[in-house]
Amino acid sequence: SLTVACTLAYALAGMSWFDAICHSFSTVAIGGFSTYDASIGHFDSPGIEFVAICFMAIAGINFSLHFIAWNRRTLKPYWRDQEVRAYFGLLAAVAVIVCGVLLQHPDASSAPVREGLFHAVSIATTTGFTTTEFSAWPSAAPVLLMLAAFAGGCAASTAGGIKVIRVLLIYKQGLREIRRLIHPNGVFSIKLGGQRVPDAVINAIWGFFSAYVILFLTMVTV
Question: What is residue 139's three-state secondary structure?
């Protein structure tokens, strides 16, 4: 249903049916493939870019939440989920910073807000659609986009990265260690959604993160 909705939205925004179908597959699947070398930039359409932003963001959410929200006919499951809140907070923060960097360098982009928002969502969700050569932007912007891609989307989504829930738990673990330094005799537990997260899960996340970073650095340097 998401793919069908994305196809219809692309068609209404001005794509041909062939392009709409092809791009809807790679948008909902967060594959980033396009029928044109210039990717979404080929269309030079704010409407098409807006559709892509919406469905890339939707595809980066846990699909179990989509199922629950669909069955209950309510949006409450999204806002109650701590990972989804962190996910949208991350996208918003990256978009604001990237747009701010582009606004400070007028020569870098002719449409700083439009291009900054699109690439923030596209790269942070690991989709990879582009409308311009963002690697030529001031160095702070592409570096931030690459770091955001490390997090990716939510668990059980089509997005890549180490997943926002792992980033969130690593962040909570860091806060717990700071509290332990301040209160050596204190007992602090990490909770997610009101449930205590076992230390074994936290250790497994750190192991996954370490392996991910080592593999990434190895592939970059080889």
Answer: coil
Residues 42, 43, 44, 46: what is their CA dihedral angle, to the nearest 10 degrees? -140
Residue position matching structure tokens 């092809």: 22
Q: Contact at 8 Å (CB) between 19 and 33? A: no
How do residues 20-68 score in pLDDT, each as one tens digit?
999 999 999 999 999 999 999 999 999 999 999 999 999 999 999 999 9
Distance, in Å, from the CA atom of 175 to the CA atom of 178, rounded to the nearest integer, reads 5
Residues in the chain: 222
Q: Token digits for 32?
A: 């980033």
* pLDDT tens column, 102-132: 999 989 998 999 999 999 999 999 999 999 9
Pairwise CA distance, residues 31 & 221, whole Å: 24
Do 99 and 116 contact (CB within 8 A), yes or no?
yes
DSSP type of residue 161:
S
Residue position matching structure tokens 């997090």 = 151
